[in-house]
Amino acid sequence: MNIGVITNDMPPYSCGIGDHTINLANAIRFAGDSAVIISARGDPSENIYVVECDWDQQGLEKLFKKLESLDLDHLILQFTPLMYLNKKNHDGHELQKFWKKCTLRWSISIIVHETYFRTWWHPPSWINGLLEKQLLKKMVANSRFAFTASQPLVNEMKDWRNNTNVQLLPIGSNFPFVEIDKNKAKEQVDFQNDEIVLLLFGGGNTLKWIKKYVHATDALLYSKGIKARWLLLGGVPEAWFKLKLPVSSPGRLSEQQISTWLQSSDIFLMPHYAGLCAKRGTLMAAMQHALPVVGTRSKMTDPFWDEVKGVQLSSLHAAGEFAQQVLALALNQQLRKHLGRVNQEYFQRHFTWENIVRSFLEVVK
């Protein structure tokens, strides 16, 4: 089976969905099928084609011609609305026409990473979120298969009453696991072995909106005299917070370096306005690297997280409860190690790229 994967960015551009695309294509090839990537930006290389495209009519016509030359059996579109909406394609109309044309030519899938953002406390999202949702619904309706890592989103898309085969598909980790002893990892990054390292990794601007969880945790551990520090990875700015505990922010790192910094950490914190969910690649990476997780729960939190003992959840508006959960882990090294191993074992059973591609191919073949 020859599979093409469309995305916006390839290296040297930094993009989590681009990294996901590379890992997905590599795993498809490892499983014995063929896979090529077609990107709008980046450096071409073996199995990566670059078709400069602003997702307008002219660019999409060039993209379609390139796809026709590749002798594909199946086509995947990596999707988040903001990746394709711009001044030349502000409503996604041309993208919808392109995707509908593709469905007449190939068997097609859409992998939905982000959906739409619409909330009462952010008025600009009332219109933008509605437009993003309308685009998503039309793109899903024009797909033969739709995949996402979020079970609540799977349920929502199934309620849209179209003929699309909607399936749950985990996203995996974008980082290699380069095993190293935790104390040695801490020495390499100049942490003290007895420091509790609290990790914030990615999350975008949404983390800034619920910084009360970070402040509550910082204040509680500081007041208890806990020897701890914050580690900010994935573009989380220290300026968003007012912290009493020391902070480390190493900036841009290689994938191998990220593995070392993850293993130097002790607890992964994931407060999020939409709740912890399986669409977060940073969450997958934390579990892969044997970290216990403290997060928030909302209606978009997948039910299966209740079965994963290494992931502890507080209600969305309970910053004090969140901080107490972090404190309990900070005070108990054996519990941290045990819950971290639980998460790593769960990751190995469910979230490896081998397992992800096996599930995908079982559906589309």
In helices, the fraction of residues equals 40-55%
Order of helices and strands: EHEEHEHHEHEHEHEHHEEHEHEEHHH
Which secondary-structure class do the elements indicate?
A: alpha/beta
- The radius of gyration computed from the alpha-carbon positions, rounded to a whole number of angstroms, is 21 Å
Total count of helical runs of at least 4 residues: 14
Extract low-pLDDT stretches.
Answer: none
**How many beta strands in the DSSP annotation?**
13
Strand order of the largest sheet: 3-2-1-4-5-6-7
Strand content: 15-25%
Q: From the structure provided, what is the oligomeric state, counting identical versus distinct chains?
A: single chain
Distance between the termini: 8 Å
Mean pLDDT: 92
Q: The biggest beta sheet, please?
A: 7 strands, parallel
Shape: globular
Would you kindly provide a written description of the structure presented here, covering whatever features stand out?
The protein is an alpha/beta fold and 365 residues long. The protein is built from 14 helices and 13 strands. The strands form two sheets. It has a seven-stranded parallel sheet, with helices on both faces. Helix 1 (16-30) links the parallel strand 1 and strand 2. Helix 11 (281-288) crosses helix 13 (333-350). It is globular. The mean pLDDT is 92.
